[in-house]
Amino acid sequence: xxxxxxxxxxxxxxxxxxxxxxxxxxxxxxxxxxxxxxxxxxxxxxxxxxxxxxxxxxxxxxxxxxxxxxxxxxxxxxxxxxxxxxxxxxxxxxxxxxxxxxxxxxxxxxxxxxxxxxxxxxxxxxxxxxxxxxxxxxxxxxxxxxxxxxxxxxxxxxxxxxxxxxxxxxxxxxxxxxxxxxxxxxxxxxxxxxxxxxxxxxxxxxxxxxxxxxxxxxxxxxxxxxxxxxxxxxxxxxxxxxxxxxxxxxxxxxxxxxxxxxxxxxxxxxxxxxxxxxxxxxxxxxxxxxxxxxxxxxxxxxxxxxxxxxxxxxxxxxxxxxxxxxxxxxxxxxxxxxxxxxxxxxxxxxxxxxxxxxxxxxxxxxxxxxxxxxxxxxxxxxxxxxxxxxxxxxxxxxxxxxxxxxxxxxxxxxxxxxxxxxxxxxxxxxxxxxxxxxxxxxxxxxxx
Length: 448
Hints:
Blueprint: H1 3-38, H2 44-75, H3 78-96, H4 102-105, H5 108-123, H6 127-136, H7 144-149, H8 151-169, H9 174-181, H10 183-201, H11 207-214, H12 222-229, H13 231-262, H14 268-295, H15 297-310, H16 312-319, H17 324-351, H18 359-368, H19 371-387, H20 393-412, H21 430-440
Helix pairs in contact: 1-2, 1-3, 1-6, 1-8, 1-10, 1-13, 2-3, 2-5, 2-18, 2-19, 3-5, 3-6, 3-10, 6-18, 8-14, 12-18, 12-21, 13-14, 13-17, 13-18, 13-19, 13-20, 14-15, 14-17, 15-17, 15-20, 16-17, 16-20
């Protein structure tokens, strides 16, 4: 493997490391300390619910980021957008580490927390899309599923890194951890940002985008063109992303709070589980990605979703045993294996849904618009527990319904794994594509 490809892999992964390090430490802090520090006037359960609500607010901002940076990715290039998103994500996370608490500045404290959380959401609204596209557009067709799955390893690394840092910080006496120790993980994110910028500065633009630019084929209005060219692709991506985004934060953020507050187990149980989950994903995700290059994306997508649906009720049965071992197994099966199969192939599958001219926009809009719903799931699940006096059947039904959305999308969606990315035209025929893009593209020689 040449040095250029290794640099591309590192550049695509580092943003995911930062994104998931940021989100995991925020989600963990929301479950463990933000209720006490930023909402001290409220009872324990309600304070936790509101702190999780601030976590959800960032997801309402992600669709905005998907529109802004997805559009820019198709207009000015993949590299420039990836430089910008890592700066926005990292700076907002670092600043959270210095926000005063409610006892210092009153209601300004949760307000500042929310504003920075929104900025964090906007910055991450197209980071993963850009990382996957960077990888896919630099990969040979026969290995595109494997190579496109690699950016998600950054998710696992970010998860393990955040869990490891939090575990170390939790070794502090509780009073010191609540006072200042929780800030350390946020402040350390600046190191990831600097490393990421150093790597991405040396990147070249992808060959496909350079070809589009040299032929003056960039579209004037990528968002409008994406909905005209590939409405089916966007809807299919929404269906899969609804499950993925929801399950991500259900299995990590909500379950962390559930195990501590409802099952009354030490937070070390979930911190250890999240670390193990990340380790297993490092193997499972690229393995599923490589398998998709041989048998296609759709079989793996459908199988992973069906297994997730069947696991909706057994998942909580295992959790409620209060056995740390069974809790670990239940979360790892749900997230690392069943969901791992889905996330491994959805990267290349999303990429292959859209034409190269609107790929960044289509991917970002398709994946990030349902993230607003995904971010609300931990809040909804917490509210269900209050309403049902601790019963989880409604959450299990939600898992089943969202899983079936992915099954349907996999059945209806295309299998483009053997096509060159430059040969994918989205939902329209070549004649319709030409008619659509003639009106949308810039005139030859138009400067940007």
